[in-house]
Amino acid sequence: MSRQPRATAAGLSGLLVLALVSSGLPLALAAAEPMAIPLAQPPGAEAIQGSGPTPPASRDPARGLVAPGGATRAIRPAPLQEDAYILGAGDGLAVKFLGGDTRNPLSGPVEILSDGTVSLPLLGSVRLHGLTLSQATLWLEGLYRRQLLRPELQLTLTRPRPLRVALVGQVERPGIYTLTSSETSNTEARVTISGLPTLVDAIQKAGGITQEADLRQVLLRRRLPGEAVAYRRTRVNLLALVQDGDQVQNPLLFDGDTIRIEKATEPVIEATELAATTLAPRQITVNVVGEVERPGPVPLPANTPLVQAVMAAGGTKSWRANISRVQLVRINRNGSVTRLAYALDLDAPASDNRNPPLRDRDTVVVGRSSFAKLSDAITAVGTPLTGLTNVLTLLQLTRNNNN
After folding, report:
1. Which of 204, 127, 129 is nearest to 161 (CA)?
2. What digits encode the pLDDT tens for the residues 150-193?
3. How many CB atoms lie within 10 A of CB 167?
4. pTM above 0.85, yes or no
5. By C-alpha distance, which of 70, 65, 69 is closest to 47?
6. How many Å from the N-terminal Cα to the C-terminal Cα in the chain?
7. Among 130, 145, 182, 212, which residue's Cβ finds the most Cβ atoms within 10 Å?
8. Exposure on the CB side of residue 67, measured as CA atoms within 13 A
């Protein structure tokens, strides 16, 4: 029984060169043909090398050069939107051999398994994980050339795998999210997300950005094609998208992308302006306790100022509340606690100094006035004496009845 060849990453480069030479291309060009199409780097982007085997040399005239060892040299910058789709586990593919009988038994649907391989007639298990469609097509043609006289084939993506991206940093709910072509955002605007997921769609699903987010420096990390674990990074200016409508700053996302939003060193946008964008959280919950009419958790729109939160709790009690010192208690992400005091001014506009915007899970404490403290002290002392007086009165009435 003939032995089926098993495709390995180590033989990928040699087979591709053999296939290209046999097709009539010069050897120098065949040795430089792409085994990994690099991602173009706009200004400010940089490539980083991860762990894994050393990738072979590759070239694409429209994108750039990835040299041995993973170093990237740009030939002509291309937009972030033109990055090539990288095959991975869960992708559904269709293999169609060109020419001859249209009902070729070798043609048909295949799916990339969790180990990154597909099972193909005559070849057995072939690894396609980490390749683009064009690279995978050349790879399969080179393998089938050992078995067939005319191995020309067409490889198409029929069912993309779920899109999973990671969001870290200054977003309301950091973590890993699965995005589809139909979503509902968790932000103030509560817009419907449809079509291919973008950077803004992912941020909206994560609940929006925090007030400390640096919109000018949003880092997007994307994996490079090939067996080697290598990435490239680029920075996106979301502030230009919010203020000027620059759609270039809202790229489509690929599976495995990582989005990091750093903490701003200084404010880059007013909180009231941020609250009106689709990047703001939809709702926050603030605890208002102390001398208010309805103490307890209060649901509020994002970035609601301190005064409005107190009013949403029914307002302060007329003579018991100390409106000159209302405390704002905030638990930071690092576990530390911030406690600040403000004078409650109903006419103060939203500002960090007089009427600060609130965050989710903040606590507003409206303390007692001096008169309320004195009244409570008198009540605390007088209540036991009142009870004793009532007992003595009852005993006196009992004696009178007996006489």
Report:
1. 129
2. 888 899 999 999 899 999 998 888 999 998 766 555 554 455 55
3. 24
4. no
5. 70
6. 123
7. 130
8. 5
